[in-house]
């Protein structure tokens, strides 16, 4: 059902045919990169947080993590990820398939600057075994993003 929700959303932008489904899991950055045959950094992971009791999604490159001081400067609160058991109800997609496509009303989407170094990236499409290759302008157009932000730093 979540895949269909993402597919219907992307269809509005003429991008539904970009969705790829896999016979293996793509629920993590590492698994998605293997399933797609690409580098981990090109996986556009969608992280879910609570800001003022409302869900917020941050789409970031696969090789970065949240930088807590930058996050606090941006949102004026500590980074608190949504509990896994509440993600689907609050966002509209389950953990492993969270994406910015067809999310619940009121969910704000932000794109992290870490994505701008790529021509195309691979966000999930609502399930733990799907993704789509999108250009950055396509991601901007179909994600309904609120703003570009800089809240990440390299892993490690």
TrEMBL record:
<feature type="domain" description="YbaK/aminoacyl-tRNA synthetase-associated">
    <location>
        <begin position="27"/>
        <end position="141"/>
    </location>
</feature>
<protein>
    <submittedName>
        <fullName>YbaK/EbsC family protein</fullName>
    </submittedName>
</protein>
<dbReference type="InterPro" id="IPR036754">
    <property type="entry name" value="YbaK/aa-tRNA-synt-asso_dom_sf"/>
</dbReference>
<dbReference type="Pfam" id="PF04073">
    <property type="entry name" value="tRNA_edit"/>
</dbReference>
<dbReference type="GO" id="GO:0002161">
    <property type="term" value="F:aminoacyl-tRNA deacylase activity"/>
</dbReference>
<dbReference type="InterPro" id="IPR007214">
    <property type="entry name" value="YbaK/aa-tRNA-synth-assoc-dom"/>
</dbReference>
